[in-house]
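Support request from a user on the community tier.

User writes: "When I paste my structure tokens into the form, the page sometimes reloads and wipes my input. The last time it worked, I copied everything first. Here is what I submitted, just in case something in the input itself triggers the reload:"
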């Protein structure tokens, strides 16, 4: 026994003399490990910038505040935004880490065997490489949105362009590339992705549905094509998604904050958005219930796991059981924390149902009955005083003299600070009550068609005016008319009677610009977009967030939270730690 123990002891000490072999795979020896290689690409997907919890950035704008006084986004709105906090650093690291995974994948994929059938192997390589280039497009777009900006010299700069994997020997202390060069790389990656990816993933049943490229390689069995490009890949990068990313990126680049250094025009931005919209028939393809895509009735549990609501261009996978959003955002009387509180500023942006802004004498707005006769989207997106919500259709009393914790500034810590609660994103059939919790399926929206319609309207108006169409069959006016009509603007007793306010602005680019921006604010509220929209427009960042104090029949506006932004904050900061670490990494001006 002693000898055995001694032998075991000596074996355990071997590492002192000869280091043990570690369980770390060499990236250059993965040619026969396709699952591991696909996992590298999967790591890039995991880091995508789409939070499960919506509306986080909105509390840093004039659209919302949070009743969580430790909310990081709220802190940046009231003067706490610095280059040192995690709001800039985390995303910067994630985007670059995702690109690193992509570059590692691209460096080895052509040597990997995904199938012993050469033609099927070629299809796998094409699809996965296409996804990789598409992920680089996605990451570059978000890097430019977050960190593109003007340096002290006034030059519009982007970020580093990395197209090969870096290692410990690489010199990372290099200057940023220009914004225009970053866009050039984005376009090149998009072109490669579009050459390799199908517009959509779908199962096929006929050899005629197999693209000619693969038929020429010998693929004549629909099952072989479906194995690679079938429905099972639904949520992964496709050609349609790449086209949508190009529409987003060019709208950003053609906006006032970036247009003078990006080389991208409004005409180009409109054209890229039109590519996406033409695939669904242009304005005729607008989803009838697209503005209500998030509701229980529209989201549902039925249908194919691979399907989309007609409004959704790209989404995450379905989570089968969750009540997190409702737990965080329902009012406290129905077991929520009421975290996102819409502002009076946003409420006032909703017009009357006849289409006129509430400030217009023709609107019929009654300050004593401020929610009567309004744009139906107001009630659909925001809980106002005396709204009903939840599985029991509970009445929510948000008044200052409310006898429940739903009222303004109650001591529970979960009550509203503005007189409003968020309704959008929440399912009415979910019950967070711990004694009888009811959870439902949901998914993360990534891109929806209304965003692309509004991108087209914005760019087309700048390029050709409100009614100009360029080379397309529809104008900014046509898009806005369809969106407002869908929402119920101009309807009485179920019949459309017209939109006189829209007609009154259709001959003015400036007035149409205001209307388009307001429609974008309403349709896309609580979708983490306004924070970036205000900056790319170089609009006012310091509008005080307001609310309403209701006592009896009196509605009194109140100031809730002051915004403290400086003009240089139209461009976000690069992480302070990286600027300290790399002497050639020039910070955006002001930070």
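"...and here is what came back when it finally went through:"
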């Amino acid at each position: 026994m002693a000898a055995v123990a001694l032998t075991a002891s000596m074996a355990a000490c071997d590492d002192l003399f000869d280091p043990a072999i570690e369980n770390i795979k060499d990236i250059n020896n993965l040619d026969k490990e396709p699952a591991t290689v696909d996992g590298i690409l999967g790591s890039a997907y995991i880091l995508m910038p789409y939070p499960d919890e919506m509306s986080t950035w909105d509390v840093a704008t004039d659209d919302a505040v949070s009743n969580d006084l430790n909310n990081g986004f709220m802190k940046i709105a009231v003067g706490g935004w610095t280059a040192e906090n995690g709001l800039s650093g985390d995303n910067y690291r994630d985007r670059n880490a995702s690109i690193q995974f992509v570059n590692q994948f691209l460096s080895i994929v052509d040597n990997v065997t995904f199938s012993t059938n050469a033609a099927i192997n070629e299809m796998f390589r094409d699809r996965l490489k296409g996804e990789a280039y598409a992920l680089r497009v996605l990451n570059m777009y978000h890097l430019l949105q977050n960190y593109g900006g003007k340096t002290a010299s006034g030059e519009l700069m982007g970020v580093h362009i990395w197209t090969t994997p870096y290692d410990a020997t690489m010199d990372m202390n290099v200057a940023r590339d220009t914004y225009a060069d970053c866009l050039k790389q984005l376009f090149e990656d998009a072109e490669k992705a579009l050459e390799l990816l199908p517009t959509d993933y779908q199962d096929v049943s006929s050899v005629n549905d197999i693209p000619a490229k693969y038929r020429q390689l010998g693929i004549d069995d629909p099952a072989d094509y479906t194995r690679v490009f079938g429905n099972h890949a639904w949520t992964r990068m496709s050609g349609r998604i790449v086209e949508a990313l190009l529409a987003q990126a060019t709208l950003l680049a053609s906006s006032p904050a970036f247009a003078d250094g990006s080389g991208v025009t409004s005409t180009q931005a409109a054209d890229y958005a039109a590519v996406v919209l033409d695939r669904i028939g242009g304005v005729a393809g607008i989803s009838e219930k697209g503005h209500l895509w998030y509701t229980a009735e529209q989201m549902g549990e039925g249908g194919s796991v691979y399907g989309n609501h007609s409004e959704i261009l790209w989404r995450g996978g379905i989570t089968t059981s969750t009540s997190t959003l409702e737990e965080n955002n329902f009012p406290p009387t129905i077991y929520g924390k009421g975290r996102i509180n819409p502002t009076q500023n946003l409420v006032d942006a909703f017009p009357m149902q006849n289409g006129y802004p509430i400030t217009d004498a023709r609107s019929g707005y009654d300050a004593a009955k401020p929610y009567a006769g309004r744009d139906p989207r107001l009630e659909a997106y925001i809980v106002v005083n005396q709204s009903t919500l939840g599985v029991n259709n509970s009445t929510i009393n948000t008044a200052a003299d409310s006898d429940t914790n739903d009222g303004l500034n109650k001591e529970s810590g979960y009550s509203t600070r503005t007189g409003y609660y968020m309704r959008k994103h929440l399912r009415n059939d979910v019950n967070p009550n711990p004694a009888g919790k009811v959870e439902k399926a949901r998914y993360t929206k990534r891109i929806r068609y209304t965003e692309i319609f509004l991108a087209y309207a914005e760019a087309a108006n700048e390029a050709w005016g409100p009614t100009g169409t360029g080379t397309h069959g529809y104008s900014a006016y046509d898009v806005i008319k369809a969106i407002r009509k869908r929402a119920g603007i101009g309807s009485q007793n179920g019949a459309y009677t017209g939109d006189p306010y829209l007609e009154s602005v259709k001959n003015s680019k400036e007035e149409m610009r205001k209307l388009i921006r307001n429609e974008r604010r309403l349709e896309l509220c609580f979708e983490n977009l306004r924070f970036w929209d205000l900056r790319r427009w170089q609009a006012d960042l310091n509008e005080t967030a307001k609310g309403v104090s209701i006592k009896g029949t009196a509605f009194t506006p109140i100031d809730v939270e002051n915004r403290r932004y400086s003009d240089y904050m139209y461009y976000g900061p690069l992480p302070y730690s990286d600027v300290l670490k790399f002497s050639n990494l020039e910070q955006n001006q002001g930070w």
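Agent notes: The reload is a front-end session timeout and is unrelated to the input. The first strand starts at residue 64 and ends at 66. The CA atoms of residues 335 and 435 lie 10 Å apart. Escalated to web team.
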